[in-house]
Amino acid sequence: MKVTKNTVVSIDYTLTNDAGDVLDTSQGAQPLVYLHGVGGLIPGMERGLDGSNTGDELKLKIPPAEGYGERRQELIDRVPKKMFQGATDIKPGMQFQARTPQGMQVVKVVAVDDESVTVDANHELAGVTLNFDVKVVDVRPATEEEVAHGHVHGAGGHQH
Ligand code: ZN
């Protein structure tokens, strides 16, 4: 079956950066299942998969603009250490939930000094060209209920 709007698509994928490092993969886990055409995946991925068929193997090279966006300097912020109430021993690499103008977001600590903590709210894949090896494992029509909810039910989807 062909991947079109409102089909439920199962894919196996491996994501590498331009250096060839594997950043993410479904190998050893369940395929990723999503409702196609409603913005559930990054734009470059949905565009690349659109019109493909069960069994197809695709190589998609997705620039940041069609992936997780460019890295934005204004999302890197220095905040007083006292804002991290209850958190002791803050180190670069740690992640926190933070209230931002865009809502709750995960921010990553990139630097710490005596008085302040520098946090980065960019998505960790922002600014990265994404190389996806994708295999279309299964395609089925979405149910009316799935289309109404905008997500997949059952295996690999919402259980409710
Ligand atoms: Zn639902």
The shape, in one word, is elongated
Q: What string gives the helices and strands in order?
A: EEEHEEEEEEH
Mean pLDDT: 93
Oligomer description: single chain
**Major sheet, described briefly?**
5 strands, antiparallel
Please give the alpha-carbon distance between the first and last residues: 26 Å
* Unreliable spans: none
Share in helix: under 10%
Secondary structure: number of strands? 9
Radius of gyration: 19 Å
The secondary-structure class comes to mainly beta
List cofactors, ions and other ligands.
Answer: zinc ion
| Number of DSSP helical runs | 2
Strand content bin: 35-45%
Structural summary, described in words:
- It is a single chain.
- The protein is mainly beta.
- Helix content is 8%, strand content 39%.
- Strands 1, 2, 3, 4 and 9 form a five-stranded antiparallel beta sheet that branches. A four-stranded antiparallel beta sheet has the order 5-8-7-6, with no helix packed on it.
- The relative contact order is 0.27.
- The model has no long low-confidence stretch (mean pLDDT 93).
- The protein binds zinc ion.
- Residues 149, 151, 153, 158, 160 line the site of zinc ion.
Strands, helices and their partners?
Layout: E1 7-16, E2 22-25, E3 32-35, H1 43-49, E4 57-62, E5 76-80, E6 95-100, E7 103-112, E8 116-120, E9 130-141, H2 144-149
Antiparallel strand pairs: 1-2, 1-3, 1-9, 4-9, 5-8, 6-7, 7-8
Bound molecules: zinc ion.
